[in-house]
Design goal:
alpha+beta, Protein Transport Mog1p, Chain A, 17 helices, 20 strands
Amino acid sequence: MVEYPYKWVAAKQIISWQKIGSCDGGKMLMEQSKFSTLLLNLKLTLLAIALGFTTGCVTEPSALTGKSTSYGYSWQQELQLGQTSDQQIIQEMGLYQNDDLARYVVEVGERVLEECDLNSTDTPEIYRELDFKFRVMDSSVVNAFALPGGYVYVTRGLLSHLNNEAQLAVVLGHEITHVLGRHASKQALKQQFGQIGLVAGAVISSELLENPEIGNNIMQLGGNLFQLLTLKYGRDAERESDSYGVDYAALAGYDVAEAAAFFESLKRISNRSASQIPSWMSSHPDPGERSKTIIALAEEKRANGVNISKKGEAEYYAKIDGLVVGEDPRQGYLSDGIFYHPEMEFQFQLLEGWQLQNDATAVNMADVGGKSFLIFSTSVGESAQSAGQKFALDSGGSVIADSSKRINGSSAFVVEILLSDGVEPTNAYCTFIEHGDRIFSFVGLTKDVDYESLRPSFAKISNSFQKMDSGAASRVSAARLQVVTANRTAEFESFIPQDLPSGIDALGLAIMNQVELNTVIRSGSKIKLPTL
């Protein structure tokens, strides 16, 4: 956790008082459900507004074709938004702490970049100095996305589902094309939704949001109208990124046909969801369709004499051996209504019916009726009291009451604040607690008319905060991928350990290995299995 990331203007904007969908608890980026996606997208939207960006019609040359093209934002605006949003995303999701793996992803990305249109002599001058950044995010969600200005993100969840360097190269080539094609800016212009169009487009443009549950949650940001307005363009952008991305990876020597197996895995992940998006309603082409397209593109490259032989299986497996797989319980997990954080050795009780979303910098909670939010994070100050007083001052609201107290042996400070933005008054019940060398805060937010009924809930959750038993905390560990060599020829299912880590099942492992449960694994082949 880092410094409390929410400004009061953002907090007030985030409270839309609509009922939020169900969220399950886990690590500090559990699944990207409606709750966390709404928070992230709205905060990024506020960021665009704060930077003074307004949607217009800007005509500039395309980095891909050189032709004059209309965009919702100028290239300079995209660079600025990308740079600032990058830090916000790092704060929200967290970087995966493995420098060797991070360097490897950068190396593969740079090989693909060397073959992209950015290095063509015909590339318009405004793009010549573009510096791409490749990030590995600490999330179990199978996801990759790009933001304007050259920022490309892959999650450890995605890396666990790839089988070789060639597949990674195609994914990175695809995301590079989203940036060079300025798809988010085009989308913002077409749908005429201002800043929210750019931000949502940047996230939705991830072809790996094929998981229907994630896709549906993001689409709820603007409802069915938003989905239908972006439908045609979304597919065009994805197909363009498939085409260019495969081309770039092929020119770098990679066997791009390998990526077809990964897109088949995406289809299987999608099919496991109870709420599948029909192909005609999706903003992305069907994963099965894209698999066939990639194979056709690969055959075309071979027919044209392009050497596409590099798979990089051994290199890839060496880099992901030991990768954290699934949720990392050391970064927080929910069990029997109690949220535990072994790394920081604390715990607190969640009320029955409340929903919890564990992010990189905060634990976000909402009551069952969707009338209130409670955000738990770290705060800044020399003491709980000084942190609480500073927070109240920065909020610009009126202090209703404040008091010092002790909560399960820890010094604490409670301050109640009335916020009024001229539309609907909001109340905040804030508790600041000293724990070790950190100060933590619970900030409960609700409409003034609901405050008295919800105030006891805010107090009960914050008053349950206490130190987690050090012995119990030390015994919690994350599951990691172990790349093993099959010692016999047998069906994949026979290699699966009897005791699997929580959240990982046999079918999920098969999908992760890009095989079926009954696929025969030859002796000497490499497979990925979880180990504690």
